[in-house]
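task queued by scheduler; priority normal; single chain, no ligands, no partner chains; default sampling; output format set to structure tokens
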Amino acid sequence: MALDEALRASTLSGRDKAFATALVYGTLDNLYLYDQYLQAYSKKPLEKLDPPVLMILRMGLWQLYHSGVPESAAVNESAKLCPQVGLRSAKGFVNGMLRNILRKEKTLCPKTLEAKTGFNQDLLKVLSAQLDGEEELIALSRAFREDRGLSFRLRGDRTVIETTRQELQKLYKTKPGAYQEDVIRIFNLGGSVRDMEAWQEGLGLVQGEAAMLPAALLAHVSADHQPMDFLDFCAAPGGKTIYYHDLRPQDHLTASDLHPHRLQLLDEELKRLSIEGVRTLVHDGTSPWPEAGETFDRVLLDGPCSALGLLGGKPERRYRFSLNNQADLLETQARLLDRAGDLVSTKGYLLYSTCTLNKEENQDQLEAFLKRRPDFKKVPMDDLLKKVCPKLLGLDPALKEEAKQGYVTLWPHRTGAEGFFLTLLAKADGLA
């Protein structure tokens, strides 16, 4: 968000904006690797350096070893940044540090698992408990560092979708989605998605492939053509609400969220896409529902989470994640699940999803909910997933067995898209 704001306010060319973006993300991807070498060559502990100087050095190493920028330009431009952040005296230090490392290191080789993956110790602890050793941890980190382009979901009937796809293929470098038929990945947008004609005409929107699954599963489980009541319980910014509408426009949709400014984003999207009839409601999901006695046939809770499945686009979370900060989040998730469960009709379904890869927030949260709420049962999802997204189950052999148990964890290095967790629950007497 900070980068986007800075680039919008700048007068840089499209090419320079692309370079600035690569510089920021590339540096964040490799902080532990760069700090390994900076500490080895610095007489001061890194925590004693001025933070802007430390970041200039890190960006300098990205330019020297990972960008293709000429060595002299990388060193000189890095040193020139010091006066711009009010630290002119550090100019010689930056110049000397970068030249010294460059003279002695042909390549930068990570020595620790942190440097190899870019994951902090708490994150390594969480992921190591679920993956098969160091090799798979490194594979996951590579998946997060891979450029997967902009995931753009196409809208309309089959003819419109295919026409839009062909037009975008003429304009941009593209690839098909990893497993979603209606996704096209765009690699050389060169500006804002808002500048795309397809976006302006309502023919598509930015949406991750895994993020499409919650709405698709709820739209197809025990579904007929009769209108149903659907609630997106933590809806903003609204991509899942919109996708559910696209799949079942006959249903009655309600979208609630705690934050008015985020719910406004959904209202703006609904207006842009000419979608009418969606009720939006500002509501704290941990509090009782304002309409006493109201229930819904389908409830989607895509809850707040640590977002570990999105580390490719949010690399700063690799360094902020802390097991010490999880208690409040886990409590909020549990309260949201209980409130969402109260809103499911007698024969209705509840889908709980997160964009994280933390078992505590996913499987453990699910099992704790089922102990509290014996009126709910997990719904096997293997046949349903095969119906709504047939390519997905073939990407990871573990998914089919998980799906039979009523949940799936989507790992980026196995599925080729963002990380995600989903579980489908039914009221006990409504189990199909």
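post-processing summary
- The two ends are 43 Å apart (CA to CA).
- The chain has a mean pLDDT of 94.
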